[in-house]
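Re-run with default settings, no changes from the original entry. Doing this only to confirm the output is reproducible before filing.
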Amino acid sequence: MNSCTSSPSLACPPVGRGRSPLKSALAAAALASACAGAHAAPVMYQIDPAHTYPSFEADHMGISVWRGKFNTTRGEVQLDRVSGRGSLEVTVDMASVDFGHDAMNGMARSAELFDAAKYPTAVYKGRLEGFVDGVPTRVAGDLTLHGVTRPVELKINSFKCIPHPMLKRELCGADVLGTLQRDEFGIDAGKPYGFRMDVTLRIQVEAIQAE
């Protein structure tokens, strides 16, 4: 029988005897730091163009609202849920504008509106902010449109990540809302006729974890 268990007056040596308390503390701290670093590494996601469609709503002479979307986008998202940080960059093909009306699509691509031949892309670069339980609630960034760069803040109405059932990688999606003044980007067609310049942005986006 072990004498230290049979006699309560005898103190048993701690497990791992031979390592000083200082060395043990340093080893534990190093392990904790390594684990924290591993969990805090940002994860990269590629935007899925088949499930990402920036759409917009714009006034028509104060009597109706015209709606359109862009069919071609690309970009990436970096997300670090532990530290509550992230970033994104999205590029939109302006020639892919789609009102569901061929004549309007042609006008939108022309110099009267987007001038897609001269400015073929719009680019949004932003920071994910306002994290709550690892989920961002807004994006603060800059939009370059029609050759002009201005700040545009977006509100994230919903954000969720799940395991992709087929790709076996994480899939994240969000519903995003924002507004801009189009004349601030040099797109002021219809302004003399009383068209309002405010445009509502409604963006559905999905992104898949990079391999």
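The helical segments are 3-6, 21-40, 102-109. The chain has one domain: 41-209.
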